[in-house]
Amino acid sequence: MNSGFIRNLFVWFIIFASLMGAYQILSQNKVNQSDIQYSEFIRRVNTGEVIEVEIKGNQISGEYIGVSGNTTNFKTYGPAGDDLIRLMTEKKVNFNFISTEESGFFAFLINWAPMIILILLMVFFIRQMQAGGRGAMSFGKSRAKMISKEDNTKTFDDVAGVDEAKDEVKEIVEFLKSPKKFTNLGGRIPKGVLLVGSPGTGKTLLAKAIAGEAGVPFFIISGSDFVEMFVGVGASRVRDLFAQAKKNSPCIIFVDELDAVGRHRGAGLGGGHDEREQTLNQLLVEMDGFEGASGIIVMAATNRPDVLDPALLRPGRFDRQVVVPKPDVKGREDILKVHTKNVPLEDNVDLQIVARSTPGFSGADLENLVNESAIKAARESHKKINMNDIEFAKDKVVMGSERKSLVISDHERKVTAYHEAGHALVAKLTPGTDPVHKVTIIPRGMALGLTMQLPIEDKYMLSRDYLLKSINILLAGRAAEEIIFNERTTGAGNDLERATEIARKMVTEWGMSEKVGPIRLAKKEGTVFLGKEMSSSNDHSEATSIEVDNEVREIIVNANSEAVNLLKTNEKHLHDLANLLLEKETVDSKELNELLGIDSSNDLNVPKDTKTENKQKSEDSSWQGINPETTTAFSDIKD
Ligand code: ADP
Ligand code: MG
Ligand code: ZN
């Protein structure tokens, strides 16, 4: 917003208003006019007291001599008809008519004031629409930000944990460094490189690092910057952007969030979107229009490659796709190293452990984690960040801030303690599940309590057995409540929702039910608003639906009875753990082992040969498994 302009407008308004006021005062030629009634005026004319009268419209002003002998200025309103004129002529009053039209500069201003204000407002709104506009008529100019090679400090060293992606783009750096060398040998360099990955994985960072490594200028624009309310503006921005880039080649053009312009043409609700289509067409035209030798590389980033217009992905356009995945354990450790480079760490900080305990974190999440840890350390006046600061920050990032002020009744607290104890015990007592990292009944975010499990390694594939056990754990909170209090609370709602979701996916997506068989019954979800896949109706019969429902129910019911049985046979442990929770609020894995009399080195949950397990990645790139995050933390939402 243009606050300077608003201030100017305000100043002008004040000046204008004071001028008006001054005029009003000056234009009252007679200063001490007293208002009198029309009847009094007529009476005074009749008695001959009135000497002079000025008539302007129906305003009558003048002078009369009162009984005391001094003259008084008066003013009144009324008709100045023939009768009055006759009377005044008869009484020898000097009278005069004045034109009602104002004249002079101020009159002009007064007449035109509404118009002037309107014009000012219009100018103001146009400025607003240009949003930080660079002077009038810059609509069609590209809004790309150019980062010159001097300003770009990013290099490949700043990007960690995505080594494959880095390898893939290295040749682009070579090309940008010396385009001639490449083309002389007849090498064909991709014009467009599409970076694909979830938010925060470092796509923008990687693109900047490429420019930084190659030492070329970097034009960055977001897809949404092209799209304006006026048709044709986006297209002319694209033209301008490419023209600028040609002047600065070799260089990189980076279109962030390409899906904002690059969505399927003619898709989405309400048919096409002219402006967006024109912009997209212009982008395609420009990409076809320049030769690889011109030294321009167009890069783009998206997290929705599936909604992109296929024309964008044809050869000669974004024909090279580089996947920027979420980092694995090793990658997370490397990213943490990058971001803690200039941060003082206590000796007890082991970044490998931090990396292990942050499955599903993106690079941006990890950066945030380091930042939060530093804030916590500063608040505690630590000289260096220690492990507790990081643990605190992690909980905050994962689960939201602690809500110690939330008022919970003693009974609710007790129910929560048993509920969490139920989750934790079943997790602990079932071999082959993820180790319990911590159990807490401190309310956080939306949750009343939380049991957190941490996988030893990232999981890319989940077995049927593992999923069934996860469902057992999810149902154990409710089971504990039922065993101890013989009541059901809403606290288990979220657990049930997630258990049911897993069970349904097992049946309909992963072919894990004997009765239904290895068949996919669920359609891939697509959002109507994002174009493509307008409908997602079922393509299977009513009978199959019923069978699916039965299978899902059976999985859940079995899991529930398993959880109940396990907890009943270990009821003493359940009481012990719940009491410990009520006392300490948070119980970590060591205390949990002590309580259960488990030797940490002989932990059921930790297989001896962790190194050989789970190392293999899923081949199927479209695999949409359960996010490890969601299977490891069982938060319990108070409804
Ligand atoms: P994206 O564009 O994929 O959404 P960004 O590149 O904007 O993600 O990442 C945001 C921030 O997160 C970066 O500025 C960087 O500090 C951090 N970050 C993300 N990924 C990485 C990574 N692989 N290595 C180091 N830092 C990263
Ligand atoms: Mg980005
Ligand atoms: Zn629960």
Give a structural overview.
The chain is of the alpha/beta class and 639 residues long. It folds into 3 domains: 179 residues, 3-Layer(aba) Sandwich (Rossmann fold); 71 residues, Helicase, Ruva Protein, domain 3, CATH 1.10.8; 213 residues, Peptidase M41 (Methane Monooxygenase Hydroxylase, Chain G, domain 1), CATH 1.20.58.760. It has 22 helices and 15 strands. α9 runs parallel beside α11 and α17 crosses α19. It is extended and about 125 Å long. Zinc ion binds next to α16 and β15.
- Name the bound molecules: adenosine-5'-diphosphate, magnesium ion, zinc ion
Q: Choose one word for the global shape.
A: extended
Number of helices: 22
The main sheet orders its strands as: 6-8-9-10-7-11
The residue fraction in helices comes out at: 40-55%
Domain unit count: 3
Structural class: alpha/beta
Mean pLDDT: 80
User: CATH H-level name of the largest domain... which superfamily?
Assistant: Peptidase M41
CATH architecture of the largest domain: Up-down Bundle
Q: pLDDT under 50 segments (min length 5)?
A: 131-137, 526-536, 606-634
Please name the CATH topology of the largest domain: Methane Monooxygenase Hydroxylase, Chain G, domain 1
Concise structural overview:
This protein has 639 residues and is an alpha/beta fold. The chain has 22 helices and 15 strands.
Key features of this structure:
single chain; 639 residues; alpha/beta; Rossmann fold; Helicase, Ruva Protein, domain 3; Methane Monooxygenase Hydroxylase, Chain G, domain 1; 3 domains; six-stranded mixed sheet; five-stranded mixed sheet; 15 strands; extended; binds adenosine-5'-diphosphate; binds magnesium ion; binds zinc ion
